[in-house]
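tool_call predict_complex ligand=alpha-D-galactopyranose
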Amino acid sequence: MGAVGSKQHARVPKASKLSDVYDDNENSVAARYDTLVSAFKTQFEGEKPKTIARSPGRVNLIGEHIDYEGYSVLPMAIGLDVIVAVSVALKEEGNVEEDEAEATLSIANVDGEKYTPKEFPFDHEQEVDVKSHHWTNYVLCGFKGIFDQLKKQNKLESVLESAFMKRVKKVMVMVDGKVPLGSGLSSSSALNCAVTVALMDAFELSFTKGELSELTCLSERYSGTQSGGMDQAISIMGEKDLAKRIDFNPIGAMDVPLPTNLTFLIGNSCAVSKKAESAHKHYNLRVVECRLAAILMAKHYGEDIEKAKTRVTLREVADLYCNKGDLWTALGAVRKALNEGSYTKKQLENDEGLGDLRKIFDCENNEAFNVVLQKNDTFKLRDRARHVFSEARRVHEFQKICEGQSPRYAVSGPIYEHWCKVIGLEPDVGVASDDPTKDFGHPMYGMGKEDALAKLMHLSHESCKTQYECSCDELDELVDAFMSAGALGARLTGAGWGGCVVAVCESDIAEEILADVKKSFYEKRFQSGVANIADETNLLFKTAPSAGAAILHYDDEKGVIV
Ligand code: GLA
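tool_result ok
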């Protein structure tokens, strides 16, 4: 069972009107759907869509790079989304020629010049060509994921043998995306999720939101990144007006009400972060480093080396050996178990006794990890683990404060209390960084809820920058621009190495801050051509928690039913 308040057992809603899903002007939303449908008809020679689905991008408020380590994260869905129209043409019964023809999966985009169409065989076992980095890879991920899920449920054969599936001649998919690519707002997961939901409906299947979240998380790994499940889970389970605490193993989504006097702002750093293309030196390398850290921590706790090598996440090890997962204890253990600086491959394999790293990461069957090990020789473990455990604490504290707990009481745990005693302070005056002693220099004692949330965001950015090393100059500059403009807090959001910053401010000065950041950060970029002024509203904007995935009923006479 997931956490109380989770929505993982529900099904994706069938929206009965556009305003169930969108806050924007209904006419412009309806016009976008009309464009989608007419592009569909043009591309597929008059065929009409059978199903339309949408799934949004997300902004992560706090909890970066910890989902794949098993820790909860705190994102919200945003208004920008991907919409997908699908139809399935069936073979005519008794038509021998059609019977023998190979069924196809044909994919196109409303912006066909930028995102060229591609046709694949209707074959769920085909591999995704990760080297091509073609946008349709994510559509293929969604397509394959549906069949993987059926297999997991022991339903694959019966579905493949069904009269419907046997008659499939052509599956037609038309896509329109509004989530800026490479922006850290999860355009790829929005695409994967929208496609998966649309295909599920068009194939007359029904999965729960939890199943969809898990299957899309796994299927997106076909694209070459070993990402955790945050993006897909919030895209599927997001809700208007609510941020969510997303839990893993099992998946769940807890409502987190945000303070109503605060506004969240998003700014794009204009440094494009191509997650799949740079995965071997950024994202997937971090996944490898965390796993190596988990193995060495297990070894430190006396685990037999062969057993330690089976450990996958830092959480697994902390839950077993660090006071049932107490994060202060885990942070203390990191300092003892892991050396400062980097380990070389040779050190890990010989001195630490791990043997061939390729075997640990099953490189024969996992190309993503294979490339990481081929292209990197040094691995930082202590800093990465410190980030993970301290960030997991910050998520916990952020949620508690949103739920109304005083910042003074949001911090807890035996080691924390021990430090308080040593230093002679009340055990309710600190804020989690990686080092309980350090933060007593600027305690949260007496801080208001708003400042405390902002401070947690600030500490998160610092940790991403210095310990996880997933920031970049443009992101740091943008964080500073928001802070100088009067934001309470700001941090990179998503995987980093480019993409967006999320900032928080008092609602009544949001517009002023946007104007100021436009001046200090964007104007020079508009002038130099790094950013296009026509994209302004997609580069810097206010955001609020938006609805998650939905299926929209389409009627050829009346259009999208609203
Ligand atoms: C990407 C991944 C997520 C998560 C974030 C970093 O968005 O897809 O699973 O790991 O990076 O928090």
